[in-house]
Amino acid sequence: MTKLIARRLAISVPLLFIVPFLTFVMATLAPGDPARTILGDDFTPEAYQALRAELGLDKSLFAQYADWLRGVVQGDLGTSPVTGLSVSGEIISRVGVTASLVLLTTVVATLIGVGLGVVSALRAGWLAKAVDVISLVGFSFPSFWVGLVLVALFAVGLGWFPATGFVPIDVSPRAWALALVLPITALAVHAIAMVAKQTRDAMLDTLGREYILALRARGIPERSIIFRHALRNAAIPVSTVVGLVFISLLDGTVLVESVFAMPGLGGLVVDATHRHEIPVIQGIVLTFTVVVVLVNLFVDVLYGWLNPKARVS
Amino acid sequence: MTYSLTPDTNSARPQRVRFLRSLRRHPLGALALGLLLLLAAGAILADLLAPYDPTATDLGNSLSGPTGSHLLGTDALGRDLLSRLLFGARVSLTGTAQAVATVIAVGVPIGLLAGYLGGWVDRVAGGIIDVLLAVPGIVMLLVIVAIFGNNESVAMIALGVLGAPGMARVVRGSTIAVRNELYIKAARVSGLTTRHVLVNHVLPRVSGPIVVRASLFAGVALLVETGLGFLGFGAQPPDPSWGNMVADASQFVAIAPWMLVPSGATIALSILSFGLLGDAIRDSTAGRARGADRVRRKVAGDAKEPAATPAQPATETPDDSDALLRVRGLTVSVPAATGQADIISDVTLEIRAGETVGLVGESGCGKSMTGRAILGLLPQPVAVTGGRILFDGQDITKLGPRQLQRLRGAQIALISQEPVASLDPVFTVGHQLKEVLLRHQPGSRREIARAAVALLRDVNLREPERVMRSYPHQLSGGMAQRVAIAMALAGRPRLLVADEPTTALDVTVQAEILGLLRRLQRQTGMAVLIISHDWGVIADVCERAYVMYAGQVVEQAPVLDLFDGPRHPYSAGLLGCMPGRAARGDLLPAIGGRVPQPGSWPTGCHFSPRCPIARDDCTRDPVALNETAAGHASRCLYPLLVDEKVFSHDAR
């Protein structure tokens, strides 16, 4: 177990430094620079040099990176060259939206996906087919398109949910929940498909094992065999997939937040990209990388907890 | 970013990919390929095919649904959606192709080298792969778009780089599988350069998984390409791409929802096609995937109890036996292409209370199936199709799932060949043992825990408390088998079916386990059915034995009589194979040929094709089991010609 976590840390910790560094390297490769972006088309060479010095762009790549790292340690991710706002402030004010979306979708997708997977493993027939169809749909239809169709049907057509926006939970829990239903559904289709498929495969694999036969031979009730023994064993590979689902939702949220005009990190990164705000994007990349590292660590711990072979040698 | 429609097997198979031929057997895959080719052709020939200029506006006909002049309708500026789809395909499919080309160009060499060279190259590549797999993909792409400006090609090539680790991993796995094959080793030894071996010998063999992976990745790439287009990157208005057409439609969801359909359906169908094509190629190059799936599903059918078949033997002999278990004319079959194939045919045996009986035979002769039938645990779709299994006068073949469950563990218990595999790996021994105990006897937690420790002590486990806290993988085979025996005894069964209980164990441990079974049998007075291929085990513990061959009982007798004078050539042959019984200096005799598969049994005596004393009449009609002496019966027409030398080299 400690070995597992140590190995994961050995990969993850460098990642926290390498990924932002890559963005620095790429930024220097790019044509033009932030100073030019800020000044627009019309500027004097003196003003340009002065701004470069002010932004630290005249320093070496490593010096710039070191400056940035020093800031990160103090919780300062720099300021946006366009809006002049603090990047860390922006990220903190928006992280709640993205967290609500990603965490809730993971929970919803895990519950529904595991349920569908178990049922379809136990009964071949139409339910197994239904899981196949959901997998195909989840795989093929882009989440942003599904989101738009949901808006057309349930927001514009039936008026059950708001078409866009986000309400903080402390303002109105009801409005918060209503605003999240459609975005979560749009994101969840694919996530459910991934979880359901893995659950079904894992359950089928487990139910074919020798110990299931042995449990039956000992007179253990079918309910306990399926829900205590088989599901507990199947949970090991499923937990890994849930981690992957969570990470893929970080990508999905970029698109879905745009569809539903939600003020989250996904929307922020899209805006920042349109405006070439490199510090903002670097801040978000760092945030997402930290989240990925934490999720992977969590999955490793969960894996060890579920799987005694990984826990005790 | 690894999406797959069916489980990935990552296996390299020897066949080279012959897509077109193999696709014939996969209509869905062929359809998908056809659709993709059609879309590509539409993109290339857009100038000729498109009814309108994709940017030509027609404000009089804006936001129309499908009409005669605009087959797929128009957008807010009255631009023809079909024409925009055709021209948009150029952007979207080109981007996809760029990403796929990059994923192959970067991922394949890394995977080949890592898999083929191994060592530090593999470790470095593995490190890079792990790092890249942990990078959030779309956000990273946005970094690149922000830095390099709105250049679709750069973004899609970057996507290919981000996808390369997944490809490299697949190729590495396949290469490792191929590397150790003889002809690759031979090529290496004969002094060919690494480059030559990789390009000419390894690459063709791993091309199947590469194409599969590339096809699945193409779906992902198209998904990302349209996503970027939707967010306003890539092709800029008024030029169409599939993604920005969805974005256009999103402005008019309220008044013209139809606009979502043409672009969304095209994107979804294309992604679906890439996925189906990948699956079809995988199935034809690595034919295992689906097959394995099917087998697993079959096994999973275990979840359902086999349907109780109301089967009656044609001729009922008067049955006044008072044995605990009476199997009468048991026939077990599996559905086959032509009706059904029997696995067990007309098996009759009985076990009295407290008796220890052996069931002997080669693997594949139906012994284990007989054991499982007695527990009502036949794997689907195997089922009892004839005969009865009477336990204490009750016909097990007629019991429902609930009744069977009440019988198992409490009346009839099982221990199996693989002791460690018969324990649930994620629960401690104590947890599992207590669950079984609680199932069969009420009691407080403390009583149950005490009973569990007592049971473990009963099966001679020295530190029962420590064993209780252990997980199955921490136990040796012998310890695990003792635990399994303890669990089987938890319900105080009257019959224990022991299916090859010592086969997987070391010789010294075998003797201990047999001794334990003997002692427990004496103490509890339970009956034991030992299924084994090992005469030593039978001689050690059994009073009587049944010899099975190709689904039939061919001989039954008290063990001593059987050893002294077998009355069936198969029993004689099996006994002759025992090393201890061969005369000193003689070669060990062997029975030529092998057990026929169910469904291809001979009409007459099942053993006749392998029998050295078979005559013409042996093959004519089924042979019945006939008594040769008191308590001794043989399914041989010439039982008196049988002696132990029947298979020896100098017998004839």
Rg of chain B computed from alpha carbons, rounded to a whole number of angstroms: 34 Å
Beta-strand percentage range of chain A: under 5%
Rg over C-alpha atoms of chain A, rounded to the nearest angstrom: 24 Å
The number of distinct helices of chain A, counting runs of at least 4 residues, comes to 13
Going by CATH, the architecture of the largest domain in chain B would be Orthogonal Bundle
Which percent range fits the helix content of chain B? Answer: 40-55%
Query: From N to C, what is the helix and strand string of chain A?
Result: HHHHHHHHHHHHH
> Percent helix among the residues of chain A?
over 70%
Domain ABC transmembrane type-1 (chain A): 95-303
InterPro entries (chain A): BPD_transp_1_N, MetI-like, MetI-like_sf
Keywords (chain A): Cell membrane, Membrane, Transmembrane, Transmembrane helix, Transport
Main location (chain A): membrane
Written overview of the protein:
- The complex is a heterodimer of chains A (313) and B (652).
- Chain A is mainly α and 313 residues long.
- In chain A, 79% of the residues lie in helices and 0% in strands.
- In chain A, helix 6 crosses helix 8.
- Chain A is globular.
- Chain A starts with a helix and ends with a helix.
- The model of chain A has no long low-confidence stretch (mean pLDDT 84).
- Helices cover 48% and strands 11% of the residues of chain B.
- In chain B, the strands form two sheets. In chain B, strands 6-7-8-3-9-10-12-11 form an eight-stranded mixed β-sheet, with helices on both faces. In chain B, strands 2-1-4-5 form a four-stranded antiparallel β-sheet, covered by helices on one side.
- In chain B, 50% of the residues are buried.
- In chain B, helix 4 runs antiparallel to helix 5 and helix 7 runs antiparallel to helix 9.
- At the A-B interface, helix 1, helix 6, helix 7, helix 8 and helix 9 of A face helix 5, helix 6, helix 9, helix 10 and helix 11 of B.
- Chain B: Pfam families: ABC_tran, BPD_transp_1, oligo_HPY, OppC_N.
- Chain B: It is a multi-pass membrane protein; Peripheral membrane protein.
- Chain B: InterPro entries: AAA+_ATPase (IPR003593), ABC_Ni/Peptide_Import (IPR050388), ABC_transporter-like_ATP-bd (IPR003439), ABC_transporter-like_CS (IPR017871), MetI-like (IPR000515), MetI-like_sf (IPR035906), Oligopep_ABC_C (IPR013563), OppC_N (IPR025966).
- Chain B: Keywords: ATP-binding, Cell membrane, Membrane, Nucleotide-binding, Transmembrane, Transmembrane helix, Transport.
